Amino acid sequence: MTFKKGCLISLGIAFILFLALIGFISKLVNESYNSNEFLLVSQSPNKINTIEIEEVTFFHSVRGPNMVEIRYEDHIMEHRVHPDATHLTSSNFRIEWESDTEATIFVMGDEQRTEEIQFNADNEYPFEITVSKYGESEFWDDIEVDFSE
Which pLDDT value is given to residue 121? Predict the structure, then answer.
């Protein structure tokens, strides 16, 4: 009888520890995914409009793109970024305001050319990706393409 009682108590304690572990892991994953920490928040010159950039990558890979959301009011644009290191920082982005309704968002990283995203608050869809006019990083300069046959 004592053996069975001790076994049941041990199983009960193991089950409680298992539930606590599951709770801890789910809380950690939830906080990691929904951290709501913005990499960059920028307001227009007269503080009329605000653009926010938030990383939404679930688990960081050693190499590879990270996903960000670029937000303005209820508009969200998802965008992939190849950062200089494993984690994105505010140094991967720059926002230059031309007026209270227009801005250029620069997305930078070692493994990609600098990208420009035009923002216009007056448009129905305020974000538009444009071609980079600021050159390419060393990573892209190493690739040679021969179109001759």
Answer: 96
